[in-house]
Recover the amino acids of this structure.
C-alpha cells in the first residue's frame, strides 16, 4: 500500500467489546445502558481503542441477553432510545472512536411482529414461510422433524398447539428465520441501511455461519461432508449483497463475522474479495498455552487470510467464553474443542493466569492485523466461577438441566472505582444493585485502583495500545519467525520490532536488542521469565 493511499482502518483496528448490560449504568437500575457508555467515552479514548463493538441494544424480551430481538429499529428501553444511540455515535466519533453494533440475522425473538403473525396465521400460511416451520415425524406428528440439537441444550424444535413445529437452534424464544425467503433478505438489507444512515461504522454479525439450512432438513449424521445448518456455502451469497449495501456509504463501513468454521480455509471464505471484511479468529482463542499450538494457529490463519487478501482479527475473550485470565490460571491449559463448553481442569492459580494473560496481550497486539479486547480484559478480570445458582440468568443453565452454569461468569458488571459494590458501575445515589453480583474484592481490580500503577494490567494495555498506534511495524502487515527453542515464540516485524514470548518453564536469554519497548513483567539480567513476553527494538 502506498503512503498516499492509507490502509482501511479495519485492517489494523483494536476494537473494544462492550457488553452493554455490564459496562456502565447511567440511570441506577443496575443494568448498563447508553447513558453510562457515553459517560465512559473519555476512558475508552484514553485506553487507546479504535472502535466499539456493542452487544445487542435492540428491543428485546431479554430471553438471551438481547440476542432475541423483537425490533431491530428500536433501542430497548432498558438501554435508552434511538436518539440516545445517535448521540453516542456522534460523541464517539468526536473522540475518534467508531461504533459497530451487533446484528442478529439467524433468528428473532418470538415476540417479533413476524413471528406473532405466523402464530396467528396457522399452518401452511405465507406468514410461516419467513421462519422454519415443519410438521412432526411419526404417525401423529409428535416427534421433531429431525434430530437437530439446540446450542443451549435439548431439541432444536418446539411444537405448537396446532401441531406445527418450529426451528430454534438456540432458545425456544429465538425462532430461526428462513433465509430462502426474499422478505428476510429485503428486511435485513433495510435494517443495515437504517443504522448506516445513523452513522454506525459497521456491524458484528452474530452466528454468521448459520442462516443457511439444507432445505431438506436432514438429520445430522457422522457421515455428512456438509453440515445441514452450519457454515454452508449459501451464506456467502447473503454477505456479498451485504457488502454491496455497506459500499453504498462513505467512510469504510465494515463487517466482522462471528463465524465458527472447521478449518482456516473455511473461515477465509467469509472474507474473500467482495465478501465480509474480517472474521474473528477463534482458533487463536481456543489454542492451549503452548508454543507449538499457538504458532500453528498463527501460521495457518495468516496463510489462509493472506491468500484472500484479508487481515487477521485476533481475540482472547468475549461474552460467550470463560475469561482468558481464568482459562490460563490452570497449570495445564487444554485446547478448547469447538462446539463444546470449555471445562477447565485443576485448581485455579490467578497469579499464574494473570502472568499469562499479560503475556498473551502483548502477543496478540503484536501480531499482524486487528484485535478485539473484551471489556474488563484490560483490568485482568477473572471469570466469576462462584455465582450463586439463584442469580444465574443465561438460558444455558435451565436448558442444560442445571448441568452447565452458562456464560454469566464472564458477564458480571465491571468495576470502576471504590471498595464496595457497585464499584462505580452504577451511581451511588440511585443504586438498585447490579443485575449480577460483583465479587467483594473487585475494588483492587477497578479502573481507579489500577490507573497510574505502572505494574497494573490497565497500564500495560494503555502502553501497549499507545506503542501499537505509534510504531510503524505494528498493525496490518507481515511477520517473520526467529529461531528459538521449541517452547519460545519470537518474531520480527519491520521496521525495527521484535516480540518474544516465553512459554517454557525456564528463563530465556533475550536476543540482542538496542532497547526494551515494553515487557509483561520484570526482566532480570536480560532474562525473560516463564510466562512472560517482551517487545524489543532490535
Amino acid at each position: 500500500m502506498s503512503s498516499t493511499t492509507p490502509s482501511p482502518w479495519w485492517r489494523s483496528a483494536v476494537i473494544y467489546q462492550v457488553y452493554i448490560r455490564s459496562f456502565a449504568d447511567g440511570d441506577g437500575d443496575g443494568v448498563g445502558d447508553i447513558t453510562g457508555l457515553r459517560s465512559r467515552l473519555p476512558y475508552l479514548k484514553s485506553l487507546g481503542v479504535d472502535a466499539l463493538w456493542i452487544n445487542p441494544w435492540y428491543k428485546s424480551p431479554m430471553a438471551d441477553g438481547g440476542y432475541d430481538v423483537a425490533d431491530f429499529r428500536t433501542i430497548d428501553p432498558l438501554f435508552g432510545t434511538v436518539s440516545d444511540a445517535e448521540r453516542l455515535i456522534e460523541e464517539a466519533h468526536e473522540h475518534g472512536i467508531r461504533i459497530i453494533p451487533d446484528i442478529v440475522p439467524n433468528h428473532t425473538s418470538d415476540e417479533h411482529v413476524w413471528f406473532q403473525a405466523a402464530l396467528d396465521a396457522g399452518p401452511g400460511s405465507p406468514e410461516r414461510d419467513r421462519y422454519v416451520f415443519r410438521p412432526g415425524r411419526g404417525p401423529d406428528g409428535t416427534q421433531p422433524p429431525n434430530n437437530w440439537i439446540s446450542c443451549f441444550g435439548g431439541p432444536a424444535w418446539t411444537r405448537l398447539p396446532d401441531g406445527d413445529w418450529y426451528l430454534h437452534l438456540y432458545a425456544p424464544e429465538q425462532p430461526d428465520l428462513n433465509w430462502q425467503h426474499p422478505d428476510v433478505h429485503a428486511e435485513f438489507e433495510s435494517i443495515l441501511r437504517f443504522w448506516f444512515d445513523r452513522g454506525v461504522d459497521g456491524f458484528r454479525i452474530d452466528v454468521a455461519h448459520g442462516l443457511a439450512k439444507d432445505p431438506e432438513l436432514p438429520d445430522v449424521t457422522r457421515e455428512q461432508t456438509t453440515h445441514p445448518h452450519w457454515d454452508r456455502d449459501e451464506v456467502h451469497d447473503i454477505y456479498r449483497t451485504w457488502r454491496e449495501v455497506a459500499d453504498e456509504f462513505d467512510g469504510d463501513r465494515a463487517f466482522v463475522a462471528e463465524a465458527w468454521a472447521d478449518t482456516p480455509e473455511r473461515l477465509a471464505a467469509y472474507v474473500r474479495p467482495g465478501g465480509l471484511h474480517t472474521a474473528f479468529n477463534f482458533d487463536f482463542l481456543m489454542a492451549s498455552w503452548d508454543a507449538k499450538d499457538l504458532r500453528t494457529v498463527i501460521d495457518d490463519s495468516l496463510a489462509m487470510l493472506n491468500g484472500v487478501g484479508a487481515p487477521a482479527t485476533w481475540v482472547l475473550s468475549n461474552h460467550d467464553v470463560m475469561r482468558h485470565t481464568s482459562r490460563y490460571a490452570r497449570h495445564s491449559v487444554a485446547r478448547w474443542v469447538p462446539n463444546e463448553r470449555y471445562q477447565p481442569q485443576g485448581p485455579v492459580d490467578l497469579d499464574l493466569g494473570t502472568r499469562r494473560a499479560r503475556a498473551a496481550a502483548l502477543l496478540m497486539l503484536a501480531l499482524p492485523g486487528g484485535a478485539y479486547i473484551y471489556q474488563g480484559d484490560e483490568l485482568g478480570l477473572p471469570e466469576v466461577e462462584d455465582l450463586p445458582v439463584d442469580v444465574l440468568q443465561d438460558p444455558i443453565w435451565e436448558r442444560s438441566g442445571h448441568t452447565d452454569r452458562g456464560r454469566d461468569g464472564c458477564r458480571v458488571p465491571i468495576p470502576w472505582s471504590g471498595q464496595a459494590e457497585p464499584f462505580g458501575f452504577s451511581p451511588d445515589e440511585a443504586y438498585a444493585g447490579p443485575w449480577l453480583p460483583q465479587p467483594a474484592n473487585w475494588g483492587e481490580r477497578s479502573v481507579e485502583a489500577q490507573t497510574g500503577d505502572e505494574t497494573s494490567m490497565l497500564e500495560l494495555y494503555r502502553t501497549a495500545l499507545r506503542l501499537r498506534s505509534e510504531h510503524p511495524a505494528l498493525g496490518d502487515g507481515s511477520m517473520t519467525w526467529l529461531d528459538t527453542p521449541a517452547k519460545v515464540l519470537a518474531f520480527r516485524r519491520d521496521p525495527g520490532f521484535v516480540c518474544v514470548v516465553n512459554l517454557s518453564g525456564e528463563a530465556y536469554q533475550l536476543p540482542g536488542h538496542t532497547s526494551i519497548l515494553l515487557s509483561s513483567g520484570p526482566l532480570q539480567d536480560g532474562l525473560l521469565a516463564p510466562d512472560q513476553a517482551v517487545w524489543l527494538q532490535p
In short: The chain has a mean pLDDT of 95. The longest helix spans residues 291-307. The chain is about 25% helix and 15% strand.
